[in-house]
Amino acid sequence: TQLLEQSPQFLSIQEGENLTVYCNSSSVFSSLQWYRQEPGEGPVLLVTVVTGGEVKKLKRLTFQFGDARKDSSLHITAAQTGDTGLYLCAGSSGAQKLVFGQGTRLTINP
Amino acid sequence: KAGVTQTPRYLIKTRGQQVTLSCSPISGHRSVSWYQQTPGQGLQFLFEYFSETQRNKGNFPGRFSGRQFSNSRSEMNVSTLELGDSALYLCASSFSPGGENIQYFGAGTRLSVL
Q: How far is B67 from chain A (nearest CA, A)?
C-alpha cells in the first residue's frame, strides 16, 4: 500500500515568515500533486510535478519533487493571511488512484 | 464552464438509515471519483467510475456503493449508516481515469450521522 506522510500536520506562523511543508513516501510516484483546501470547499489543484528534481514556482510558492520521486516539498516565502488553508499532497502511479497525504493545516496570523 | 456540483451540501441522518449523494461532473468529463474526508483519516478514496463502470475501489465496506449514469453523473449510496460515517464526501471529475489526470473537486456533501 502506498502511503504519503505530510509534516507538519499543523503550522501556525506570523505573516511575512517563510515555511516549508514536506510530503514523504517510501514508494515511487510517477507524479505528485499539491492541493489547497479552504473551509467549506473542495481541494483545488495548485501544481503537478512529474520529473525527479523538478522545481515549479507559483508566485511565492515553490514546489520541488525529489530526485527519486518519493518525496516533495512546498515552500512559501513571505506568507500572507490568504495562504491559510489545508495543504494536501497526492501521489499518482500511472492509471492507479490518487493517494493523499493527511494534510498540513496552515494558519497565517496577521 | 460549470464546476463539479454536489448535492445536497449538508445532510443529517440517524444511525441505520441510508443516504444517497449526487455528483454532476464538469461537462465533458467522463471519470468521477469519490472520497471520504475526516479529520482523523484525511482524504480516503472510495471508488472511481468511468463510462458507467467502476474502475477502482478503495478499502471501504460493502455498505458504500456507487454508480454512474450515461450522462456521467454519479451517485454514491451508504446503507445502514454508522456514527463513524460522519464525514465530508467529496466528488472529483476528470476527463480520463487515473490519478495522473487533473481532478476537479466539488465542494462536498457534509454528512452528519446522529
A: 17
